[in-house]
Amino acid sequence: MREHAMARGSVTFGVELRRRRESAGMSLRALSDAVNFSYGHLSKVERGEKNASVDLAQRCDHELSAGGALRALVRTKAPGKPPISGGPAEGGVPWTAPCHSAGETYGLLAADQAVQAVHVMPGQPDSQSVQLTWCMTSAPVGSAEVARALGHFRRLYAECRSLGQTLGPLAVREILTSSIDSLRGIAGSARPADRAAALRLAARFAEYAGWMAQEAGDENGALGWNGRAAALADAADDTDFVAYTLIRRAEMALYREDAHAVVALARRADAQARGVRVRGLAAQREAQGHALMGDDAACLNALGRAADLMAEERAGGTAGAVTAAAGDPVPGSAHLAGPADFVSGWCMHDLGRPADAVDVLTGGLEAIPAEAGRARARYGARLMLALAESGELAEACAMTEAVTSSVVLLDSATIRADLRRLSHALNRWPRHSDARQASRHIAAALHTGAYVRGHAPSPLN
């Protein structure tokens, strides 16, 4: 019988899983349904006949509210590999498993197959503080070759962003993950002067993979990719992008309606960032958190700070598609013509001021390029919601088919979240013929994605 790695004493994963499941009054069948693993597989895990994967441990930990205790019992070192080391070292390429709990060490695997380590530092519940160790075994590649390769990957990144505006998240997933692996390989073979550039670009691919996971309604996957992006950026000493990953985590908290987490994460990003762009984005996210709390004054104050910071960025000439120094894609939306208006309109709606939201958002939709289907649908859904809640039913319903028709193709959990809210709003007018027709279109759109694939929706979905 194979035993699981032990966190303390002689407690194994299977024994602890059974204890917690029975304490929660949950049958093995119910847990199987909840975590989407087969009954037979879970039964063998509990009996110690099969080892639990990290993914299974995370799902069981969540379903049984174990607070990371189950995850800590899973073996992270592959059999036959050397022990995971700690402390500073040079070279190599970081690669992390999803990071959720402080004080845990995760196994990493570099392009050269050397075992790596990332340790989540105590006192950092959002898992952004990491310690990386690695080694490089391959001969260094020349700077000219690295520069040419990174040029290709920057163009590929732009193509992935464009493709993600047209098709669902799964359409770009394999391209993103294979690109990250390739960039890790380049970094592992590059000279120190070139390594950071490869890691910075890999971090951007990982962040976008996290956004695609979020759009697919996979919150655990989104958090995992966010942790990977932060670790890669940290290894490249890209402080601003590490701070930006906090802003992305704050966006996930926003869709969970955890306003306090949104504000706390945004403020941490502001404190860590050096550049005005990321600080401006952090202020925008903080404003959304205050709006969710209903704090009008704090929201407007944050929006004002964001506007000042973005104006400072424009004055400095760094508001384009890439930074002047490194050629790296800048953080934030590349397709919203007026992201500040989108955020302001969002805030006005969440502050209970839908008419003001309509005033801010009206006109912005047409400024978004036609090929940016995801951005147009997100913007349109938020505008429709503001229109409906401000009593402008005819105008809201007139947009319904255009927005909902793209949801099937885009498979967007964030758009569906707004459509669900819109559906609730329209239900207040059951005798309004346009509202009934719009509700039918929305119902069809909400039946796509995770529901069609048979997966239980996450809080984002």
UniProtKB/TrEMBL annotation:
Classification lineage: Bacteria, Bacillati, Actinomycetota, Actinomycetes, Kitasatosporales
PROSITE patterns in alphabetical order: HTH_CROC1
Superkingdom, natural source: Bacteria
Organism field: Kitasatospora albolonga
Domain named HTH cro/C1-type: residues: 17-59
InterPro entries: Cro/C1-type_HTH (IPR001387), Lambda_DNA-bd_dom_sf (IPR010982)
Residues passing through the membrane, by range: none
SUPFAM superfamilies: lambda repressor-like DNA-binding domains
Stated name of the protein: HTH cro/C1-type domain-containing protein
